[in-house]
Amino acid sequence: MLEPRGGIGQMAGVAVQADLIDKLGRDRVRVGEAARQGCGQDVLALVLPQSSLDVEHAVQVARRRHVALEVRYRLPDPLDEHLADAIVLDAAALQRPLEIDIGRRLATVGAGVEVHALDRAARQARLCVRGLPLWPDETLGQMLAAGDCGEVGLGDATFLQDIVSARVVTGAGRTLQLGVTDLFGLAAGVAHGLPSPLGLLEGHEGRGLIVCELTVRLHRAPMSAWAHGTLPATRPAVLSVLSAARGLVASRHVDTLRLDERAGAALLAVRVSSPRDAADLTVLTQETKERLVALDVQLGDFAPDDRRVRLGQQAPQWLQARTPALDMQVAWPDLPAVLDVADALAARLDVPVARTWAVGADAVRLRLLAPGPGPHPFLTEATPLLDAGAVPIAAGSRWRQAVRERMSPAAKVLLTALHRAFDPDGLVSAKSGLP
User: Fold this and answer.
1) What dihedral angle (degrees, nearest 10) is formed by the CA atoms of 20, 23, 28, 34?
2) Per-residue pLDDT tens for 375-384?
3) Average pLDDT value for the chain
4) Which CATH number, 2.40.280.10, 2.30.110.10, 3.30.43.10, 1.25.40.10, labels domain 10-93?
5) Which residues, 6+ apart, have CB-to-CB distance to 86 below 8 Å?
6) Of 49, 68, 113, 386, which one has the greatest count of Cβ atoms within 10 A?
7) pLDDT tops 80 at residue 153
8) Phi, psi of 212 (to 5 degrees)
9) Looking at domain 99-220, does it have CATH number 3.30.465.10?
Protein backbone atom coordinates (compact mmCIF):
# COMPACT_ATOMS: atom_id res chain seq x y z
CA MET A 1 0.00 0.00 0.00
CA LEU A 2 1.36 3.41 -0.97
CA GLU A 3 1.93 5.84 1.87
CA PRO A 4 2.34 9.60 1.36
CA ARG A 5 5.23 11.46 2.97
CA GLY A 6 4.39 14.80 4.47
CA GLY A 7 7.80 16.45 3.96
CA ILE A 8 7.64 16.61 0.15
CA GLY A 9 3.88 16.82 -0.15
CA GLN A 10 1.27 14.12 0.03
CA MET A 11 0.59 13.77 -3.68
CA ALA A 12 4.28 14.05 -4.60
CA GLY A 13 5.21 11.25 -2.21
CA VAL A 14 2.55 8.94 -3.62
CA ALA A 15 3.68 9.78 -7.17
CA VAL A 16 7.30 8.88 -6.40
CA GLN A 17 6.31 5.54 -4.90
CA ALA A 18 4.01 4.76 -7.83
CA ASP A 19 6.73 5.61 -10.38
CA LEU A 20 9.23 3.34 -8.66
CA ILE A 21 6.80 0.41 -8.57
CA ASP A 22 5.91 1.00 -12.22
CA LYS A 23 9.56 1.02 -13.31
CA LEU A 24 11.02 -1.71 -11.11
CA GLY A 25 8.08 -3.83 -10.04
CA ARG A 26 6.42 -4.22 -6.68
CA ASP A 27 8.81 -6.96 -5.54
CA ARG A 28 11.80 -4.55 -5.73
CA VAL A 29 10.24 -1.56 -3.97
CA ARG A 30 9.34 -1.33 -0.29
CA VAL A 31 7.13 1.42 1.11
CA GLY A 32 5.45 2.08 4.42
CA GLU A 33 6.14 -0.38 7.22
CA ALA A 34 8.18 -2.70 4.97
CA ALA A 35 10.57 0.16 4.14
CA ARG A 36 10.71 1.17 7.80
CA GLN A 37 11.76 -2.32 8.84
CA GLY A 38 14.40 -2.54 6.13
CA CYS A 39 16.01 0.85 6.90
CA GLY A 40 15.42 1.12 10.63
CA GLN A 41 13.56 4.41 10.19
CA ASP A 42 10.91 6.13 8.06
CA VAL A 43 11.90 6.64 4.43
CA LEU A 44 10.03 7.60 1.29
CA ALA A 45 10.79 4.25 -0.36
CA LEU A 46 13.35 1.45 -0.17
CA VAL A 47 14.61 0.13 -3.53
CA LEU A 48 16.14 -3.35 -3.85
CA PRO A 49 17.82 -3.34 -7.30
CA GLN A 50 19.04 -6.48 -9.01
CA SER A 51 21.04 -4.89 -11.84
CA SER A 52 22.49 -1.62 -13.06
CA LEU A 53 19.33 -1.17 -15.14
CA ASP A 54 17.24 -1.15 -11.95
CA VAL A 55 19.58 1.44 -10.49
CA GLU A 56 19.21 3.57 -13.62
CA HIS A 57 15.43 3.46 -13.29
CA ALA A 58 15.61 4.52 -9.62
CA VAL A 59 17.91 7.43 -10.48
CA GLN A 60 15.64 8.54 -13.32
CA VAL A 61 12.59 8.57 -11.06
CA ALA A 62 14.46 10.52 -8.41
CA ARG A 63 15.65 13.09 -10.97
CA ARG A 64 12.25 13.50 -12.54
CA ARG A 65 10.55 13.94 -9.17
CA HIS A 66 13.38 16.04 -7.63
CA VAL A 67 13.88 13.65 -4.70
CA ALA A 68 17.22 12.80 -3.07
CA LEU A 69 18.55 9.27 -3.59
CA GLU A 70 20.56 7.85 -0.68
CA VAL A 71 22.76 4.81 -1.38
CA ARG A 72 23.43 2.38 1.46
CA TYR A 73 25.69 -0.64 1.24
CA ARG A 74 24.52 -2.03 4.59
CA LEU A 75 21.17 -1.61 6.33
CA PRO A 76 20.11 -0.69 8.90
CA ASP A 77 22.81 1.94 9.41
CA PRO A 78 22.87 3.56 12.86
CA LEU A 79 24.32 6.80 11.44
CA ASP A 80 21.42 7.42 9.03
CA GLU A 81 19.51 10.58 9.89
CA HIS A 82 16.58 12.45 8.35
CA LEU A 83 15.88 10.16 5.40
CA ALA A 84 12.10 10.47 5.53
CA ASP A 85 11.97 12.40 2.24
CA ALA A 86 14.58 10.33 0.37
CA ILE A 87 14.59 7.19 -1.75
CA VAL A 88 17.00 4.72 -0.14
CA LEU A 89 18.74 2.30 -2.49
CA ASP A 90 20.00 -0.88 -0.82
CA ALA A 91 23.14 -1.79 -2.79
CA ALA A 92 23.39 -5.09 -0.90
CA ALA A 93 20.60 -6.35 -3.18
CA LEU A 94 22.97 -6.20 -6.19
CA GLN A 95 23.74 -9.92 -6.28
CA ARG A 96 25.04 -10.60 -9.79
CA PRO A 97 26.15 -14.27 -9.88
CA LEU A 98 29.86 -14.82 -9.44
CA GLU A 99 31.98 -15.38 -12.57
CA ILE A 100 35.59 -16.50 -12.12
CA ASP A 101 38.11 -16.54 -14.97
CA ILE A 102 40.67 -19.01 -13.61
CA GLY A 103 43.22 -18.43 -16.37
CA ARG A 104 43.21 -14.67 -15.95
CA ARG A 105 42.62 -14.81 -12.19
CA LEU A 106 39.70 -12.41 -12.30
CA ALA A 107 36.30 -12.49 -10.63
CA THR A 108 33.29 -10.39 -11.64
CA VAL A 109 30.48 -10.16 -9.12
CA GLY A 110 27.70 -7.92 -7.86
CA ALA A 111 28.52 -5.23 -5.32
CA GLY A 112 26.18 -6.81 -2.77
CA VAL A 113 28.03 -10.15 -2.62
CA GLU A 114 29.92 -10.85 0.61
CA VAL A 115 33.70 -10.77 0.34
CA HIS A 116 34.02 -14.05 2.21
CA ALA A 117 31.63 -15.74 -0.23
CA LEU A 118 33.88 -14.62 -3.09
CA ASP A 119 36.97 -15.88 -1.28
CA ARG A 120 35.41 -19.29 -0.58
CA ALA A 121 34.42 -19.66 -4.24
CA ALA A 122 37.90 -18.61 -5.39
CA ARG A 123 39.59 -21.14 -3.10
CA GLN A 124 37.85 -23.97 -4.91
CA ALA A 125 40.10 -23.00 -7.83
CA ARG A 126 43.17 -22.63 -5.54
CA LEU A 127 42.82 -18.82 -5.66
CA CYS A 128 41.97 -16.29 -2.96
CA VAL A 129 41.10 -12.67 -2.15
CA ARG A 130 43.67 -10.50 -0.35
CA GLY A 131 42.73 -8.21 2.50
CA LEU A 132 39.67 -9.92 3.98
CA PRO A 133 37.54 -8.32 6.71
CA LEU A 134 36.96 -10.01 10.05
CA TRP A 135 33.22 -9.40 9.96
CA PRO A 136 31.55 -12.08 7.83
CA ASP A 137 28.76 -9.91 6.39
CA GLU A 138 30.96 -7.29 4.69
CA THR A 139 30.15 -6.93 0.98
CA LEU A 140 32.45 -5.88 -1.84
CA GLY A 141 30.53 -2.65 -2.37
CA GLN A 142 30.58 -1.87 1.33
CA MET A 143 34.36 -2.30 1.59
CA LEU A 144 34.92 -0.10 -1.45
CA ALA A 145 32.50 2.58 -0.29
CA ALA A 146 34.03 2.67 3.20
CA GLY A 147 37.64 2.59 1.96
CA ASP A 148 38.06 -0.56 4.03
CA CYS A 149 41.49 -2.16 3.63
CA GLY A 150 40.53 -5.39 5.38
CA GLU A 151 42.38 -7.04 8.26
CA VAL A 152 43.24 -10.63 7.33
CA GLY A 153 46.10 -10.59 4.83
CA LEU A 154 46.70 -6.87 5.35
CA GLY A 155 50.44 -7.43 5.59
CA ASP A 156 50.47 -8.80 2.05
CA ALA A 157 48.17 -6.30 0.30
CA THR A 158 44.70 -4.80 0.58
CA PHE A 159 41.45 -5.72 -1.08
CA LEU A 160 41.22 -2.22 -2.59
CA GLN A 161 44.48 -2.67 -4.50
CA ASP A 162 43.00 -5.59 -6.45
CA ILE A 163 39.92 -3.85 -7.87
CA VAL A 164 40.36 -3.89 -11.64
CA SER A 165 37.11 -2.34 -12.85
CA ALA A 166 33.66 -1.33 -11.72
CA ARG A 167 30.29 -0.88 -13.38
CA VAL A 168 28.67 2.21 -11.89
CA VAL A 169 25.61 4.39 -12.37
CA THR A 170 26.10 8.13 -12.07
CA GLY A 171 23.79 10.65 -10.46
CA ALA A 172 22.81 11.64 -14.00
CA GLY A 173 21.44 8.15 -14.66
CA ARG A 174 24.25 6.91 -16.95
CA THR A 175 25.96 3.53 -16.66
CA LEU A 176 29.76 3.68 -16.91
CA GLN A 177 32.53 1.09 -16.85
CA LEU A 178 35.47 2.47 -14.87
CA GLY A 179 38.84 0.76 -15.19
CA VAL A 180 39.51 -2.10 -17.56
CA THR A 181 39.35 -5.87 -17.58
CA ASP A 182 41.26 -6.57 -20.79
CA LEU A 183 44.78 -5.63 -19.69
CA PHE A 184 46.18 -8.70 -18.03
CA GLY A 185 49.49 -8.82 -16.23
CA LEU A 186 49.37 -5.08 -15.50
CA ALA A 187 48.64 -3.36 -12.23
CA ALA A 188 44.98 -2.98 -11.31
CA GLY A 189 43.56 0.36 -12.42
CA VAL A 190 45.88 0.91 -15.41
CA ALA A 191 43.73 2.12 -18.30
CA HIS A 192 45.79 2.27 -21.51
CA GLY A 193 48.17 4.77 -19.92
CA LEU A 194 45.34 7.24 -19.34
CA PRO A 195 44.03 8.38 -15.94
CA SER A 196 41.01 6.45 -14.68
CA PRO A 197 38.56 7.68 -12.02
CA LEU A 198 38.30 4.15 -10.61
CA GLY A 199 40.36 5.10 -7.57
CA LEU A 200 37.90 7.84 -6.68
CA LEU A 201 35.38 5.20 -5.66
CA GLU A 202 37.49 4.28 -2.64
CA GLY A 203 35.72 5.71 0.39
CA HIS A 204 33.05 7.46 -1.70
CA GLU A 205 30.20 6.11 0.50
CA GLY A 206 27.69 6.13 -2.34
CA ARG A 207 27.98 9.81 -3.24
CA GLY A 208 27.91 10.69 -6.93
CA LEU A 209 28.44 7.14 -8.20
CA ILE A 210 26.56 3.94 -7.37
CA VAL A 211 28.66 0.78 -7.66
CA CYS A 212 26.75 -2.13 -9.21
CA GLU A 213 29.43 -4.68 -10.20
CA LEU A 214 33.12 -5.16 -9.49
CA THR A 215 35.90 -7.08 -11.21
CA VAL A 216 38.53 -8.17 -8.69
CA ARG A 217 41.97 -9.63 -9.28
CA LEU A 218 42.50 -12.97 -7.51
CA HIS A 219 45.75 -14.52 -6.32
CA ARG A 220 47.11 -18.00 -5.82
CA ALA A 221 46.06 -19.21 -2.38
CA PRO A 222 49.14 -19.69 -0.16
CA MET A 223 49.71 -22.32 2.48
CA SER A 224 49.08 -20.75 5.87
CA ALA A 225 49.06 -21.53 9.58
CA TRP A 226 47.56 -19.70 12.57
CA ALA A 227 48.79 -19.34 16.14
CA HIS A 228 47.27 -17.55 19.13
CA GLY A 229 48.88 -16.12 22.22
CA THR A 230 48.80 -13.55 25.01
CA LEU A 231 51.07 -10.75 26.14
CA PRO A 232 51.09 -8.19 28.97
CA ALA A 233 48.41 -5.54 28.48
CA THR A 234 50.86 -2.66 28.82
CA ARG A 235 51.74 0.02 26.35
CA PRO A 236 55.45 -0.94 26.08
CA ALA A 237 54.56 -4.59 25.45
CA VAL A 238 51.96 -3.71 22.80
CA LEU A 239 54.28 -1.31 20.98
CA SER A 240 57.10 -3.86 21.08
CA VAL A 241 54.94 -6.53 19.48
CA LEU A 242 53.68 -4.10 16.84
CA SER A 243 57.26 -3.12 16.02
CA ALA A 244 58.27 -6.77 15.70
CA ALA A 245 55.19 -7.43 13.56
CA ARG A 246 56.24 -4.68 11.18
CA GLY A 247 59.56 -6.44 10.67
CA LEU A 248 57.88 -9.82 10.18
CA VAL A 249 55.57 -8.35 7.56
CA ALA A 250 58.49 -6.67 5.76
CA SER A 251 60.42 -9.95 5.68
CA ARG A 252 57.37 -11.78 4.25
CA HIS A 253 57.04 -14.09 7.25
CA VAL A 254 53.60 -12.89 8.35
CA ASP A 255 50.63 -11.64 6.33
CA THR A 256 48.24 -11.20 9.27
CA LEU A 257 48.85 -10.07 12.83
CA ARG A 258 45.93 -9.01 14.99
CA LEU A 259 46.19 -7.71 18.52
CA ASP A 260 43.03 -7.47 20.63
CA GLU A 261 43.09 -5.33 23.78
CA ARG A 262 40.11 -5.42 26.07
CA ALA A 263 39.26 -5.96 29.74
CA GLY A 264 42.92 -5.73 30.76
CA ALA A 265 44.04 -8.51 28.44
CA ALA A 266 46.00 -8.50 25.19
CA LEU A 267 45.30 -11.38 22.81
CA LEU A 268 47.36 -12.08 19.72
CA ALA A 269 46.45 -13.90 16.51
CA VAL A 270 49.11 -14.32 13.84
CA ARG A 271 49.08 -16.03 10.45
CA VAL A 272 52.19 -17.15 8.61
CA SER A 273 51.83 -17.89 4.91
CA SER A 274 54.03 -19.35 2.22
CA PRO A 275 53.42 -19.56 -1.54
CA ARG A 276 55.86 -22.51 -1.79
CA ASP A 277 55.45 -25.72 0.18
CA ALA A 278 54.93 -27.19 3.63
CA ALA A 279 58.65 -27.24 4.41
CA ASP A 280 58.98 -23.51 3.76
CA LEU A 281 55.90 -22.88 5.93
CA THR A 282 57.49 -24.84 8.79
CA VAL A 283 60.65 -22.73 8.65
CA LEU A 284 58.66 -19.48 8.63
CA THR A 285 56.51 -20.54 11.59
CA GLN A 286 59.58 -21.46 13.65
CA GLU A 287 61.32 -18.16 12.96
CA THR A 288 58.16 -16.18 13.68
CA LYS A 289 57.57 -17.96 16.97
CA GLU A 290 61.15 -17.36 18.11
CA ARG A 291 60.92 -13.62 17.45
CA LEU A 292 57.60 -13.24 19.25
CA VAL A 293 58.48 -15.44 22.23
CA ALA A 294 61.57 -13.26 22.76
CA LEU A 295 59.14 -10.41 23.54
CA ASP A 296 57.43 -12.33 26.38
CA VAL A 297 54.54 -13.40 24.16
CA GLN A 298 52.97 -16.66 25.28
CA LEU A 299 52.40 -18.11 21.82
CA GLY A 300 50.86 -21.50 21.13
CA ASP A 301 51.77 -23.88 18.33
CA PHE A 302 50.96 -23.01 14.74
CA ALA A 303 48.09 -24.99 13.23
CA PRO A 304 47.81 -25.20 9.41
CA ASP A 305 44.50 -24.24 7.82
CA ASP A 306 42.04 -27.09 7.62
CA ARG A 307 41.83 -28.76 4.21
CA ARG A 308 38.15 -27.83 3.89
CA VAL A 309 39.02 -24.19 4.56
CA ARG A 310 41.73 -24.27 1.90
CA LEU A 311 39.20 -25.65 -0.59
CA GLY A 312 36.58 -23.04 0.30
CA GLN A 313 34.15 -25.59 1.70
CA GLN A 314 33.70 -23.91 5.06
CA ALA A 315 34.23 -20.52 6.64
CA PRO A 316 37.40 -20.04 8.71
CA GLN A 317 37.04 -19.90 12.47
CA TRP A 318 38.43 -16.39 12.92
CA LEU A 319 35.27 -14.67 11.69
CA GLN A 320 33.77 -12.33 14.29
CA ALA A 321 30.28 -10.99 14.97
CA ARG A 322 29.73 -7.33 14.19
CA THR A 323 30.03 -4.86 17.06
CA PRO A 324 29.91 -1.03 17.06
CA ALA A 325 33.38 0.28 16.29
CA LEU A 326 35.37 3.23 15.02
CA ASP A 327 37.88 2.24 12.31
CA MET A 328 41.01 4.15 11.28
CA GLN A 329 44.25 3.68 9.39
CA VAL A 330 47.39 5.08 10.99
CA ALA A 331 50.80 5.44 9.33
CA TRP A 332 53.63 3.98 11.39
CA PRO A 333 55.27 7.38 12.20
CA ASP A 334 51.93 8.72 13.52
CA LEU A 335 51.14 5.72 15.69
CA PRO A 336 52.44 7.06 19.06
CA ALA A 337 50.60 10.39 18.67
CA VAL A 338 47.30 8.71 17.71
CA LEU A 339 47.64 6.29 20.61
CA ASP A 340 48.21 9.19 23.05
CA VAL A 341 45.12 11.01 21.78
CA ALA A 342 42.97 7.86 21.90
CA ASP A 343 44.03 7.17 25.51
CA ALA A 344 43.31 10.79 26.50
CA LEU A 345 39.84 10.68 24.89
CA ALA A 346 39.06 7.38 26.59
CA ALA A 347 40.04 8.83 29.97
CA ARG A 348 38.04 12.03 29.48
CA LEU A 349 34.94 10.22 28.22
CA ASP A 350 35.34 7.49 30.85
CA VAL A 351 35.29 4.79 28.16
CA PRO A 352 37.12 1.50 28.80
CA VAL A 353 40.06 0.80 26.50
CA ALA A 354 38.98 -1.80 23.94
CA ARG A 355 40.75 -1.85 20.59
CA THR A 356 42.13 -4.14 17.96
CA TRP A 357 45.17 -3.70 15.75
CA ALA A 358 45.84 -5.16 12.31
CA VAL A 359 49.37 -4.74 10.98
CA GLY A 360 50.14 -3.74 7.41
CA ALA A 361 53.37 -2.95 5.61
CA ASP A 362 52.78 0.82 5.46
CA ALA A 363 50.11 1.41 8.09
CA VAL A 364 48.25 -0.07 11.02
CA ARG A 365 44.51 -0.50 11.11
CA LEU A 366 43.19 0.59 14.50
CA ARG A 367 39.66 -0.32 15.56
CA LEU A 368 38.20 1.27 18.69
CA LEU A 369 35.39 -0.89 20.01
CA ALA A 370 32.34 0.76 21.55
CA PRO A 371 31.41 -0.34 25.10
CA GLY A 372 27.78 -0.99 24.12
CA PRO A 373 25.24 -0.81 21.30
CA GLY A 374 24.66 2.36 19.30
CA PRO A 375 27.07 4.91 17.76
CA HIS A 376 30.64 4.93 19.02
CA PRO A 377 31.21 7.46 21.86
CA PHE A 378 34.27 8.88 20.05
CA LEU A 379 32.32 9.90 16.95
CA THR A 380 31.40 13.38 18.15
CA GLU A 381 34.85 14.17 19.61
CA ALA A 382 37.27 12.28 17.41
CA THR A 383 38.64 15.21 15.39
CA PRO A 384 41.83 15.27 17.53
CA LEU A 385 42.53 11.81 16.12
CA LEU A 386 42.53 13.30 12.63
CA ASP A 387 44.94 16.03 13.75
CA ALA A 388 47.23 13.32 15.13
CA GLY A 389 47.34 11.56 11.75
CA ALA A 390 44.49 9.05 11.77
CA VAL A 391 42.63 8.43 8.49
CA PRO A 392 39.03 7.34 9.06
CA ILE A 393 37.57 4.27 7.38
CA ALA A 394 33.99 5.22 6.42
CA ALA A 395 34.13 8.87 7.45
CA GLY A 396 30.33 9.05 7.54
CA SER A 397 28.25 12.17 8.09
CA ARG A 398 29.81 12.81 11.52
CA TRP A 399 33.41 13.04 10.24
CA ARG A 400 32.91 14.16 6.65
CA GLN A 401 33.07 17.90 7.31
CA ALA A 402 36.10 17.53 9.58
CA VAL A 403 37.92 15.57 6.88
CA ARG A 404 36.97 18.11 4.23
CA GLU A 405 38.37 20.97 6.30
CA ARG A 406 41.77 19.27 6.32
CA MET A 407 41.89 18.84 2.53
CA SER A 408 44.04 21.12 0.39
CA PRO A 409 42.27 23.77 -1.75
CA ALA A 410 43.35 21.96 -4.92
CA ALA A 411 41.82 18.67 -3.72
CA LYS A 412 38.56 20.44 -2.84
CA VAL A 413 38.33 22.04 -6.28
CA LEU A 414 39.06 18.72 -8.04
CA LEU A 415 36.53 16.72 -6.04
CA THR A 416 33.88 19.40 -6.44
CA ALA A 417 34.37 19.38 -10.22
CA LEU A 418 34.18 15.59 -10.36
CA HIS A 419 31.09 15.52 -8.19
CA ARG A 420 29.34 17.97 -10.50
CA ALA A 421 30.38 15.96 -13.56
CA PHE A 422 29.03 12.68 -12.18
CA ASP A 423 26.07 14.13 -10.27
CA PRO A 424 25.19 17.52 -11.82
CA ASP A 425 21.89 17.88 -9.94
CA GLY A 426 23.27 16.85 -6.56
CA LEU A 427 20.82 13.96 -6.57
CA VAL A 428 22.83 11.16 -4.98
CA SER A 429 23.28 11.82 -1.27
CA ALA A 430 22.40 15.47 -1.70
CA LYS A 431 22.05 15.83 2.08
CA SER A 432 25.69 14.89 2.54
CA GLY A 433 27.07 17.81 0.56
CA LEU A 434 30.04 17.58 -1.79
CA PRO A 435 32.68 14.89 -1.15
Assistant:
1) 20
2) 788 888 888 9
3) 86
4) 3.30.43.10
5) 43, 44, 67, 68, 69, 70, 431
6) 49
7) yes
8) -110, -40
9) yes
